[in-house]
Amino acid sequence: MQRETLSSGCINISVPYRSVKLGFCAEHALCAEGMACTSQSASDYVMTARVHLVRELTNLPVLLENLYQQRVLSDEEVSKIEAQKDDYDRTRAILDSVTKKGEEACYQLLRIIDITRKRTLGRPTPLLKHKNEASSDIKKFDLHHWISCFSFKEESQVDTNYLQGPRPCHRYQTKLKSKAQKTSREFWMASKNLLKDYKNPQLSYTPLVLDTQCSISPSKVKKFKNKKSKLSRPKKLRTYIPENKTEISPTDLLKTDKSILLVGKPGIGKTALACEILRLWAERDHKELDYMFYFDVREKASIQTTTSLEDLLFSVYREPDEGKEEVLQDIKRNSENVTIIFDGITDFSSCAETVQKLVEKDLLPDAKTIIACRPDDEEDFSFEGYLRVEVKGFSEQMIMKYLSTTLGEDHKVSSNLELLSLCHVPMYALMVAASFSKEDSLQPRTITEIYINIVRFCLQKNSKKIKTKNLNLFIETLSGEILYLAKIAFYATQRKTVNLEELSCGDSCVLSFLKPLDIKLDCTETITARAFLHYTVQEFFAALWLLKNPDQIRDVFQQCLTEEKKYMKHLIPFMCRLLSERSPRLMSCLIPEEELKKTSEWFFKEMITYFLSGLSTQDPTTTDDRGLDVDILFLCQCLYESQSPKACIYFLDKLDYHLDLSGENLDPYSCCAVAYVVTQSKKRKTSLNLEDVAVSEQGMRCLFKCLENVKWYDV
């Protein structure tokens, strides 16, 4: 609906002040109802606000450049206007030149003011909240309101034909967007390179679970952790996978004017989220003249030596090709159009003063700041006005999407709950995907090897980019801290808890495997413990400690056959791989090879003997399931991890080459393990009982490989 124009109203400065006051308030009310001034011509509309325009128009070069680009003013006219002695005279000259040219020129001026209002009209005046404010506030004519009441023609994509700021600023924005796109590509290329042995996946951002609710209270954490420890293993592992939420997206985070605090465990996806925000900004249209800067604080030591805003933005990040001072002034004057991302800040107090001032809003007070930090460091950024977003990793649906992208639809990770739940941490999901080979048909590497890759990758990623060729030496220097963490992990596993209360290690690389855990002792006291990002990673470290202390291994064998400690069996497969003849390089960095060799001489035989003897003492008629967790299938999985033909032959000989798997539920990994054990016997065939087994098509394809070594089998 069209509205009738106020005839004299607030925009006519020749009327008495009382009329101005009443007209201004009335026009506010009318425009608030969605109406617009339409009966005045563009030239009349400009003339009625001339005094206010002369007084308040800013960024005149932007107006002049747009008027020149739209052919309203000639090059000669622009030069004469620029030669005026001050901005007031330049504004008068602009208005005089435009109004002399008639209606179309005035319309173009109004359109330019409307599109560039953020930079040419300054900040909008807040609406009056109280009547008694009117007498003082009304003296400032609201040009934002004035321009919004003019009725413009419907024009498609007109905004792209106008400059929002000085041309050097637009060129600098283009340069920043090019760098943003490069940063995003390089981030995903680093992940893609780890997968080059498999195929050539088109990696991009996989949606993460983002939670904007306040952090869970310590009492709830304790209650939740206690509840988790009482769950069965499958249910416990599933608790690590966050529920799928569509509460907020990277696009929402880009659009909000609020500064943002991204909080999350190591490897949970904070950098991936920051890079996605960067990419979305870079690919956005150029209607707005805005700037985005991304600093990975972990990689750029030069950030800590910056002494000024100019040094940080131009020397450390990217320098303008032209108009350096003009760009800097535009950034300072229009800081609401600036976004700065600081990724990986771990010690705010040691940051450069420039960084601290930006985060605390002492510099560029209206700029949007995005900080990515771990929960340990969150207290350093408890500033008012920040939107807290907790990054929780992949939901189960997104885990499956990520694995399908990296490994194809025919992968077997989904059948292994340990690996599936591990993949809720995107960095672990990447290493799981990278640990599956390309040409080994459907057979993955051992599970333990995936955890070894995770450990090495985490240490490298958190070591200020130690090169791969120097990683082993770096691990040797950290062996004391790693084995100390392994000791804490072992005793926590024995207690069947995830709370590492006694941990006192302060090395950031070692702590990258952990997350903070608040435990409320009473109403006035809370302590902060730590927990591994995933329980199976804790079990892997516990296995490391056992191999450093082999005198404890026989006790663990016995515990595995008891109801109270049968969960300790999950350490055994890890030890089998770490002790194999082709032991991983990781082990030689932590434990002398002579010690490992000495342990392996008795380990496999005693493991098989212990567990087979435990099985032979079972009463087949009893309903008590004590010790039944350690069965033939479990031993096959341990031997598959060991990749030891000698241990497999010893095992088959103990069973007189008869494997009874009747009634078992064989997932693809179990089928790989059985097939591996059976194929190690070249001289004697094995009888295989598969009566009433449940097996998938994937699993059957694995079993087919061993049939030439099978004497007879039941299906």
Kindly describe this structure.
Among the domains are: 146 residues, Death Domain, Fas (Orthogonal Bundle), CATH 1.10.533; 189 residues, Rossmann fold (3-Layer(aba) Sandwich). Helix content is 49%, strand content 9%. The protein contains 34 helices and 13 strands. α21 packs across α22 and α31 packs across α33. The N terminus is likely disordered.
- Helix count, per DSSP? 34
The average pLDDT is 82
Low-pLDDT stretches? 1-37, 127-138, 216-225, 438-444, 621-628
Annotated CATH topology of one domain: Rossmann fold
Q: Based on the structure given, which CATH architecture of one domain is correct? A: 3-Layer(aba) Sandwich
How many β strands by DSSP?
13
Tell me the Rg in angstroms: 34 Å
Instruction: Give the neighbour order of strands across the main sheet.
Output: 1-6-2-5-4-3
Question: Termini separation (Å)?
Answer: 79 Å
Q: Which structural class fits the helix and strand makeup? A: alpha/beta
**Share of helix among residues?**
40-55%
Biggest sheet details: 6 strands, mixed
General form: elongated
Strand content: 5-15%
CATH class descriptor name of one domain: Alpha Beta
